[in-house]
Design goal:
73 residues; 0% strand; mainly alpha
Length: 73
Amino acid sequence: MAPQKNEGNNWSEYQKLVLAELERHGKLISEIDSKISDIRVELAMLKVKSGIWGAAAGLISVLVFVLYQLVSK
């Protein structure tokens, strides 16, 4: 009967270890979720910036063409 008590003690220690690991993994998942949210915000900002820069480049091209047409007449 002594081995059964010993097994119970081992399970108790193992249970604490498993719970501690689950808590640690939960914290890591929360940190990853937070970082993913930050990356999504940064990506959205980059999309807006690239759209603005693309529009500006297109506008400059059109202005150069219009100025060229006006000067060449």
